[in-house]
Amino acid sequence: MQRLIREFQLYYRDRARMIFAPEVEKREFMFMGFDDVVRRYISFKSLDSLRTYMADIVPRHAYYSVGLYKRPEMRKMEQRGFEGAEVLFDIDATGLEGCSYDLYFCEECSHEQQKEMQRCPSCGSERIKKMDWLDEACIRAAKAEVKKLLKILREDFGLGNDGILVSYTGNRGFHVRILAKEFLKLGKEERAEIAGYISARGFDYEVFSSAGGYKFPKPDEGGWRGRFSRALISVLRENKMDEIARDIEEGKTIERGFMRKRRWILEKAVSRMKEEAATVDEAVTFDIQRLTRVPNSLHGKTGLRAMTLTYDELDEFDPFTDAVGLSDSPVKVRITRKVPRFSINGLVFGPYSRDEVLELPAYAAALIVLRERGKAEI
Questions:
Q1: Active site residue 90
Q2: Catalytic site residue 312?
């Protein structure tokens, strides 16, 4: 690991000017070292002092607060002089379709396999570790959720490009922050409501029901009401119910019994509507003390850079080329767990099997070692 720590050190020394944090003097910073020591409640008066500090301590992970404070170094919230906090959305590809665990191994006997297991077939142990990998499928899945989120923030909240910031985390996901000043003072309850709205949580088509029948929104309405009606009309037309679809478009009331007997249509419409919802970690959004990664810091599980992106950059963004931060200096690696084939910096590596010893560029070696698939040898 010392070899990779030196690579991190060179990065923070030679590329210090890339490290950035807006309103740096109002942020709390937290760092985790390669020794697993956590340093919290740190503040800086300037970007230069932040850059010098990171070059000195060589963090494995570097974070700063979405909250803005008069005295960010204070441990107690009531002493900090809270000025507001950006609204943060966390999109992690883990669990999304197309991105899953690729390796399971027994911590008792080291048996490993790609197929999921609850109990080791070799020794019977239940000490099973699930391991994921970072690949193109994960990034595509996470990007798709970011685009859904941005669409909702624009259409339903009226936010423009200057009020939203998109960041790649350096690993399997993205952070999206609302920077608009009118959102800074929102409390936890309001932020929780926003997160629930983004995911269309709690949507119930029965709100459109009354004694007289179902009065659905017109399809040109904004928000989830309009999305639901458009989905409902689409499902009706697919099932040759064009007349009912036209009635909804014209704002007519649909006979109650008709819809009750065809509840499956309503359920399918809700399901289709929710395909436009974004998958976010709601616990992150309502937390005003949450931390996010320092832009252009290195991620301690991949060696890739955490990067801020414009909306136009998101489509073409490829972390396996754009976020490479480490050098191509050779690093000797002993493979300890199966490594799938992967591409980084325009080159293809792997697949590799346990006990292979290889000499790889530092950026490729880091991905293997930091994801616990190998060990760097001095």
A1: yes
A2: no
Which of 48, 135, 156, 281 is flagged as catalytic? 281
Instruction: Name the residue range of residue 258's domain.
Output: 205-276
Residue 172 belongs to domain with CATH number? 3.90.920.10
Q: What is the pLDDT along the chain (378 residues), one digit of tens a residue?
A: 889 999 999 999 999 999 999 999 999 999 999 999 999 999 999 999 999 999 999 999 999 999 999 999 999 999 999 999 999 999 998 878 877 767 898 999 989 888 889 999 999 999 999 888 888 989 999 999 999 999 999 999 999 988 999 999 999 999 999 999 999 999 999 999 999 999 999 899 999 998 889 999 999 999 999 999 999 999 999 999 999 999 999 999 999 888 888 899 999 999 999 999 999 999 999 999 999 999 999 999 999 999 999 888 998 999 999 999 999 999 999 999 999 999 999 999 989 999 999 999 999 999 999 999 999 987
Please spell the DSSP secondary structure of 41-54, one letter per residue: EE--SSHHHHHHHH
Q: Which of 90, 132, 135, 287 is catalytic?
A: 90
Sign of CA dihedral 78, 79, 80, 81: positive
The model's pTM is: 0.91
- Rounded to whole angstroms, the Cα distance separating 68 from 23 reads 8
109 & 248 share domain: no
Q: Is 287 a catalytic residue?
A: no
Give the total number of structural domains in the chain.
Answer: 3
